[in-house]
Design goal:
Blueprint lengths: L2 H7 L13 H18 L2 E5 L22 E6 L4 H17 L3 E5 L17 E9 L13 H4 E3 L6 H11 L10 E6 L2 E6 L5 H16 L5 E2 L1
Parallel strand pairs: 5-6, 7-8
Antiparallel strand pairs: 1-2, 2-4, 3-4, 6-7
Helix pairs in contact: 1-3, 2-3, 3-6, 5-6
The structure holds flavin mononucleotide (FMN).
Amino acid sequence: MTLNEAIIARHSVRRYLDKPIEKEIAEELQKTIDECAEKSGLKITLQLDEPGAFGSGMATYGKFENCTNYITFVGKKEDEEKCGYYGEKIVLRAQQLGLNTCWVALTYNKSKLVCEKESGEKLLIVLAIGYGQTPGHTRPTKPMKELCKIKNGDAPEWFKKAMESVMLAPTAVNQQKFVFYLDGNEVEAKTLLGFYAKIDLGIAKLHFEIGAGDAFFVWK
Ligand SMILES: Cc1cc2nc3c(=O)[nH]c(=O)nc-3n(C[C@H](O)[C@H](O)[C@H](O)COP(=O)(O)O)c2cc1C
């Protein structure tokens, strides 16, 4: 599965099978986690077989069922965009490995979450992970014209492809609070007012880069 295919296949999944992640799959996932932790400077930790944060067995927390694995992202408040960008790399790798995921900012049991952090560090977000009962489903998106602005003329084909990937990016409560501006070969992505909008922006920027393929552009 290519990264573009993983973007299309990915949907938030909150109901999981009672099936552990196999050792070899967990090891592959761990390699991506280690790379992302090194590049981002964030503390990214995979917790396997830890049912507390989402409830265990038939007990559920939030809209989650059987969620016993998750990844925690710890860093500073100003790392939020980076957290979205590198976290989404892990999401897409998980999809390639046959796993499903859901970003979770709020709907977990904080008192039962296993997460180590030092003073000055913050738990930025959690990612639920496992084998979904279903692959999830498509959801509505804002139209492309609301999500981007083109200076001078029409959007080139590569930009439209990149924006199609952006439209498939997960965002908190599906808010899609960002705008991508194209000026020549320069792209600027800005958040609008929203909740966890910086994490969303990092996720969307990764989708943009993947969708753009080898087109030449620079981030402003
Ligand atoms: C930053 C962020 C925070 C999120 N927080 C939650 C959450 O607390 N609980 C939840 O059930 N889903 C959460 N989600 C999942 C979104 O609701 C979901 O991504 C969005 O509705 C789009 O659906 P999709 O991921 O299937 O494309 C979050 C997603 C993001 C990106």
